[in-house]
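Subject: Protein record for review, amino acid sequence with backbone structure tokens
Why sent: The fold of this protein is of interest and is recorded here as tokens.
Enclosed: The protein record, placed directly beneath this head.
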Amino acid sequence: MIPIYDTAPRARRPVVVHAIIGLNFLIFLWMVALPEPGLYWVLAHFALIPLRYSDPQLAMAAGLDPYDYWPLLTNTFLHGGWLHIILNMWSLWIFGPAIEARCGRPGFILLYLAGAVAASVAHLLANWNSPVPALGASGAIAAIIAAYAVTYPRAKVILLVPVLFLPLFVPVSALFFAALWFAIQILQGTQDLFASSMGAGVAWWAHIGGFVLGFVFAKAAHALGLGRDIETRQWTGSVPRIPRR
């Protein structure tokens, strides 16, 4: 289930979205070029390792400062592989321009960074004693998805659903997509709490934390009358029809 397009008004020049995507790819390419010891050093100091905060003595023995909270943010700009970064940046490209158009550039930056930190805190609390580094932008992007669903609940999201070898294009409302996506995160996150070996290395609770932050952010902005539309373009294509059987 891959979102490939949406019908919400999109910023004509989503400067912040472009900048975040470009920054993530630059950092990823830099990491790929690092020798193995350098890569381990980057992960140790900038990825989120919950054990760093749950066991300060062990952290200090390993040369890590347990009172350095920058990894709650910096881990968001690190990725573990090509598929990881491509899927994250693709999702940001689909949902980000509409929220940048609505919130304005400063508002979008605030939402993205707050979502990143909220996602990190949720992952930290759910994996308090884990020595495994967590990294990736998916928690921040979850905040964007939640804000998108609140702001444009009736917008259509075109999903690519592979059925055997055939691609099926399914239009659903943004609200339905976000609700389904969030339900999957809750299901998988709850399962991971009781059987961590089944979590497939995915930071489900980071997704949940980011999503909740984005939902609250968008609701608060709406209630306070904040946000503004910058120059946008509206999709004028037709929504693919689902064959009836």
Observations:
- DSSP finds nine helices and five strands in the chain.
